[in-house]
Amino acid sequence: MNNKIRSTFKGGLGQLTIPLIAIAILFLFNLIRDPGFFSIEITYNNDGNAVLAGNLISVINGASELAVLAMGMTLVTAACGGQDISVGAAAAIAGSAFVKVLKSGSAITGGTVILAFLCACIVAMLFASFNGTLVAVFRIQPMIATLILYTCGRSIAYWINGGATPTVDSPIIRAIGSFIPGVPIPTPVLIVVAVTILFMLIFHFTSLELFTQSVGINGSAARLNGINSTLIKLLSFIILGFCVAVAGIIGVSRLELINHETLLLDVEMDAILAVAIGGNNLGGGKFKIVGSIIGAYVIQILTITLYAMKVSSTDVKAYKAIVIVLLVVIGSPVIKAKFAKLMSQLKSNKQRVSMKGAE
Fold first, then answer.
1. Nearest in space to 282 (alpha carbons), one of 143, 82, 135, 75
2. Label partner for 215 (CA 20 to 30 A): which of 56, 112, 281, 331?
3. Residue 12 to residues 7, 50, 84, 209, 329: CA-CA distances in angstroms?
């Protein structure tokens, strides 16, 4: 049993090696460039509340939507061996539904916010079920299946509010997007923690993690062992739909309005890259949610670093692409296999030298 635990820990740690090294390099680079780059200070916001501020807080806070989406994207990737490229458009739909419910009453109360949240989740999960049905039932490649919603999703979001960009001026919405009075930690960060705990509880009390990995590794073998691979794939999309709704609501609450054209624009590629940087196999199978979360923060730190170095917004994507390609290539199975072979050869050479010395 101890050997099994040790093997599992070693495998999990190995999968997290690349994202941990990446985040360590970015931290070290920024500390050398600016020793105070990650300093945290206490300031007062416009409401007079003491809050935490600084680049580190900006990184953790700014990556909240991406971290939530990366968790859901990890499940879809693991189960289906492909990615959902419609999460940004789906988030715009969920955000529009959220605002529509909020604006339906005369005042925004706690009950209205809860109802709007539930409606946004239902809408996002329904659209995710549509994607999941195409993939799980009709066996369409995930990226092709989700291309439909990617293309028309923001138009649907546009129709929900009649083409308007209504604002939601409310202390409750402001607290969701920024800070809860008396709590110095940004609310989006707390939401990421809550979603992470929810995933951990699901994996602990159910066999979803095992079933998802089994379906992703070999769907036929999983079916022979009594696992409903169609249901698992569909469920992975539905869970991603929940994550999409949460990310969309955070995005809306930050701005206190819905803009269907810009809400989480281009977040799809960042979500996929966060999964890849996290050491997860984009072809499906074994996965680590923690790796994807770290991957999201790697992308955000890289973005903040580039802006701090006065790189123009038009050039940021190019620099990000270069660094991310390097990270993905370094973490690819080919490079990992060659590195493992090199380490094995070095170990064998060391043993031979030790044996000769003993003689």
1. 82
2. 331
3. 9, 38, 25, 14, 19
Q: How far apart are CA 196 and CA 67, in angstroms?
A: 9
**Do residues 52 and 183 touch, judged by C-beta distance below 8 A?**
no
Crossing angle for the helix pair 229-255 and 64-80, nearest 10 degrees? 170
As given in the structure block, the two tokens for residue 178 are: 């920024």
> Residue 348, exposed/middle/buried by CB under 10 A (0-12, 13-18, 19+)?
exposed
Per-residue pLDDT of the chain (359 residues; tens, 9 = 90+): 344 334 333 444 567 888 888 899 999 999 999 998 888 999 998 878 899 999 999 999 999 999 999 999 999 999 999 999 999 999 999 999 999 999 988 789 999 999 999 999 999 999 999 999 999 999 999 999 999 999 999 999 999 988 888 999 899 999 999 999 999 999 999 999 999 999 999 999 999 999 999 999 999 999 999 999 999 999 999 999 999 999 999 999 999 999 999 999 989 989 999 998 898 888 899 999 999 999 999 999 999 998 888 888 888 888 878 877 887 787 777 887 888 888 888 888 877 777 766 66
Query: What is the distance, to the nearest Å, from the Cα of residue 32 to the centroid of all Cα atoms in its chain?
Result: 28
Which one-letter amino acid corresponds to residue 313? S
Give whole-number Cα distances, 288 to 143, 166, 174, 209, 321, in Å. Answer: 21, 38, 33, 10, 23
Q: Residues of 42-59 as b/e, b for ≥16 C-beta within 10 angstroms?
A: eeeeeeeeebbbbbbbbb
> Which residue ranges make up each domain of the chain?
64-289
Q: Determine whether 4 is exposed, middle or buried from the number of CB atoms within 10 Å of its CB (0-12, 13-18, 19+).
A: exposed
Euclidean distance between CA atoms 305 and 37, whole angstroms:
9
Radius of gyration of the chain (CA): 22
